[in-house]
Specification:
The two termini are 15 Å apart. This protein has one domain. The chain contains three helices and no strands. The chain has 60 residues and is mostly helical.
Length: 60
């Protein structure tokens, strides 16, 4: 379970950095790296960030 929590935390950090870049510089790093916001790979990353956010509720 500790490994899963570490993976979730890493994904959340990636998501937070991405949102910070969107807010500060209007640059979506995930979309830029993986071929646009509508590419399948970008959608997978966005979905993993969302699921990780839900899993993080268990940290409380």
């Amino acid at each position: 379970m500790k490994v899963l929590n570490s993976i979730v935390l890493a994904i959340l950090i990636i998501g937070a950095i991405n949102w910070g870049c969107i807010g500060l510089f209007n640059v979506d790093l995930v979309a830029t790296i993986f071929g646009g916001a509508n590419s399948m790979l970008s959608k997978i990353i966005y979905t993993l960030v969302g699921i990780s956010g839900l899993w993080a509720f268990s940290f409380f």
